[in-house]
Amino acid sequence: MLLFAFLFSFLLDNNPLPKADSVLIIKQINISGNQKTKESIILRELDFGTGDTILKSEIDKKLDLTRRKLNNTNLFNSVELKTVEVAKNQISIDIKLMEQWYILGYPVFQIVDRNYAEWWQRGASLSRTTYGIDLLHGNFRGRAERINLRLETGFTQRLELGYRIPYINKAQKTGAGFSVTYIANKNLAFKSLNDTLYYFKNFEEILRKRLSAAIYLRKRYGFYDTHTLELRYNNNSIADTISNLNPNYFLDNRTTQRYFQLSYYFNYDFRDNVAYPLRGNRYELLLNKSGLLPNDDINQLELTAAYSLYKPISKKIYYGLYLKGKVSFPERQPFINTRGLGYFGDLVRGYELYVVDGSSFLLARNNLKFQLINSKIHLKFLKIKQFNTIPIGIYPNIFMDYGYVQNNFATENKSKLANRLIYGGGFGLDFVTYYNMVIRFSYVLNDKKERNFVFGIGREF
């Protein structure tokens, strides 16, 4: 008994209970500004609830994490949190929101090349653009549901319909969605040679048709992790002209490719801003199996993993690191399904004009940036509150990237960049503004001693 009493007192000494004056009790949470958004969607993102007890030393951290999560829902232009003392050691938390404009119908005009540098090299022709309209409701019924209809013509004809509901159960942990996409091309990249895409056009004939339909379930156990399971059906076809130009487009001189696809995607996202992060980290894992049935036209397995780190070095200097790797099997793959570096934003900066095909790759990107301006401009003459406050951020930066692509058939397409280390770097200027828009101007060079100016619109890696 004496031994037990001694151990109990020892544990108390090393894990002292918090003093009464060091804790706060949350008596009330007041939310304002959510004219459309349901309170349940907002409360799901809070690190605290009514009646919770919080250490005074942790309250600022809790508020900052909550502000971060509410911002990253992409439902609000601004989020403000503050505490109000209502009695001794008792507080209320006021959450003031400014909602975004959720119903958008805006014209689409974009290049079809992988980036503006490639588009410019190919003559900056308007024939290499698509145009149309994108109709979006980003907060349908106030439940963060998303409905999207996209109509495009020009270089590519596209019809796309998508729907997403973040939560289908009372626990607000399970979501679902579906999408249907039809795409037709009369101008098509049919092969890569010397690490460059080659195109063929025929305005009298559709060269490729793609139809895909997908349904998915998404599970969110905590605040920062999501698990997505998706089932997709793909039906692709090409004209005889394309199969003659490249018998490996679908392999074996095929003109059709039909298959089911099952994928699992894990995402842990602890970044302060999903569009342009300065702090936090992110883990991603994708396992994708193309070809589920015996009669499917493809049998391919792909594993992709990525890690991002964003860290302040000083008050206004920030470092960013992005690592990504992919392995896929078998090594012999259809051209349309072989994606190394140069596609979907996976590129070594300085190699914007190239593609490096292969079944597996590694990519490392480094960025060091300085926060020159972080401010807001208020347009008093504009009465629509969702648009009359413009956040402005300007970040000069320097960067350095490395990449490696494995391709056991590199001699077939005369690749000089596969199976060796490639690297590039440069410096640039990033402009960050509202609705998650990031505009970049960069001067880049690579290990081939090639230099170029690059313009881009998109998110941070």
TrEMBL record:
Listed InterPro entries: Bac_surfAg_D15 (IPR000184), BamA/TamA_POTRA (IPR010827), D15-like (IPR039910), POTRA (IPR034746)
Localization annotation: Membrane
Pfam family, one: POTRA
Taxonomy, superkingdom: Bacteria
Keywords associated with the record: Cell outer membrane, Membrane, Signal, Transmembrane
Residue ranges constituting the POTRA domain according to the UniProt record: 24-100
Transmembrane stretches, start-end: none
Main location, first listed in the record: membrane
Any one Gene Ontology cellular component term annotated for this protein: outer membrane
Name of the molecule in the record: Surface antigen-like variable number repeat protein
